Amino acid sequence: MIIDTLASAEKYYGLHKNFKAAFEYINATDLETLATGKYDVTDGLIVIASEAEGKTADTATEKFECHNKNIDIQFCIRGNETIGWKPRTDCKSPKGEYSDEKDVLFFADKPDMYFALKDSQFVIFYPEDVHAPMIGEGLIKKLVFKVKI
Predict the structure, then answer these.
(1) Angle at 17 between CA 15 and CA 19, to 5 degrees
(2) Which residue in 8, 45, 110, 112 is deepest, having the highest Cβ count within 10 Å?
């Protein structure tokens, strides 16, 4: 997992061929007027724009998730979001089977830690990062990039 600010994003371009395209998309888009929805950015990179009320930690951890085929870059546009995290190797209680179609596996485990994302901050989740986003109060507007591995 990586947590940083948009001002430092350039140093992560070399970690995956589509990271640069994701951060360039953020810089080239009017994020305040961007409608919620799913957008194709380039081959192997989509972005999901959402704006929703924050959830309680208990509600968010009901979907404590990780992915096998994608890296998530989650970028906070507006609001204060808290995210729960735990290494996948420490998760012992899967909830159901992995969904290949949705690229998601849920766990009944609880996060080891929580951290906050504020405006213009991002987190990068690799397949080994189990996460529970959208914890908070009030509206949270964010982008979730799905970076195909």
Answers:
(1) 65
(2) 45
> Strand pairing partners for 47?
39, 145
pLDDT at 124 over 90: yes
In contact, 94 and 107? CB cutoff 8 Å: yes
Are 18 and 148 in contact, with CB atoms under 8 Å apart? yes
Indicate the pLDDT class of residue 119, thresholds 50, 70 and 90. confident
Say which residues have a Cβ less than 8 Å from residue 35's Cβ, sequence separation at least 6.
49
Distance CA 113, CA 120 (A): 21
Rounded distance, CA 20 to CA 41, Å? 11
Alpha carbon distances (Å) from 36 to 48, 59, 141: 7, 22, 9
- 3 state SS of 119: coil
Kindly report the pTM of this predicted structure: 0.96
